[in-house]
Specification:
With about 200 residues, this protein is mostly helical. The chain is built from nine helices and no strands. The longest helix is centred in the N-terminal third of the chain and has 25 residues. It is globular, with a radius of gyration of 17 Å.
Length: about 200
């Protein structure tokens, strides 16, 4: 890439950052921190999972002991890198803030034991409570102008590629992750996970 092109890209990035609103940045960060709180204190102890990127982070955590703080950051970056042309610069910027808002607090939460380990014995309650954390956290991130996970970028990229409706692309990513999660979660817990996915949506 030529120097003028790099300079132009740098100027575009600076213009995007200057155009960000502080309240939206704060909302994107703290709503994702709220979501991360639920994922760590509810999902990770209850055997209840999510679809898409969130479910993939729990899957990687189980099989490879890879913290969702790390895998979530990497997976989201990959998804945003794939779909950035479709999503726009400001959406990506707010989403990156939300991604940091998920990963840093999650790493902090991991320094302490889960607050409600008893939820492992109450899957229905865990499914509802977990869904509220994810639904509210993700919803507020969208209100801020971004997204707490790369699912949006992934679905928006898959949709034109496979000529699917957007809803079908979202469902596809959720179902793939839930099926892979059968490798460590019993079928009944996957049923409760479907409840979580439905409520959080």
């Amino acid at each position: 890439m030529s120097s003028p092109s790099l300079r132009g890209l740098w100027n575009e990035c600076r213009a995007t950052v200057r155009g960000l609103e502080r309240w939206r940045c704060c909302m994107a960060f703290f709503s994702s921190a709220f979501l991360a709180f639920g994922l760590y204190h509810v999902h990770s102890v209850s055997g209840i999972t999510e679809g898409g990127v969130l479910g993939a982070t729990l899957l990687l955590d189980h099989w490879f002991s890879l913290s969702p703080a790390v895998s979530g950051f990497v997976l989201n970056l990959l998804c945003y890198g794939w779909g950035w042309r479709l999503l726009g610069r400001s959406f990506i910027a707010y989403s990156l803030i939300a991604t940091v808002g998920f990963s840093l607090p999650y790493k902090l939460y991991e320094l302490f034991p889960p607050l409600w380990p008893q939820l492992a014995e109450m899957p229905l309650l865990a499914a509802v409570v977990g869904a509220l954390f994810v639904g509210v956290g993700a919803g507020l991130s969208v209100r801020a102008g971004g997204a707490s996970g790369g699912d949006d970028a992934l679905a928006l990229s898959i949709s034109p590629l496979l000529r699917w409706r957007l809803s079908r692309a979202y469902l596809f990513t959720d179902v793939v992750v839930l099926l892979l999660s059968l490798s460590y979660i019993p079928v009944m817990r996957i049923a409760f996970s479907l409840i979580t996915v439905t409520i959080s949506s």
